[in-house]
Amino acid sequence: MHDEPKGPQAARWRKRRHEALRGLKLPPEALPGSLSLTHRRCGKPNCRCAKEGGHPVWQLTFMAAGRKRVERVPEEWVAEAQRRVAAGRAFKDAVAEVLVANAELLALRRKQRRRG
Prior knowledge:
Number of strands: 3
Oligomer: single chain
Largest sheet: 3 strands, antiparallel
């Protein structure tokens, strides 16, 4: 499976793959998932949150071992966590681009093989 497909369409996919691979470096501090602000009630009957909709709480939501995980993030860590989540998402998007390019090249190779 080493013979690459030929033609301008294949060249475009190889270029996209090359560009994605060139910038592909796993940031060691990257985080998966998403960061969101939610509101929780503490349960104290006289607390202001019972009337105002809850205390603000930042959460990192991600998948680990096939299960959804939710971890609270302290307010003072939010800016850093946002940067780390963005880095993780950019890495994941670049990997996806490489995989799609490889799949498209495989499909082109198969079509060219059928033609002769």
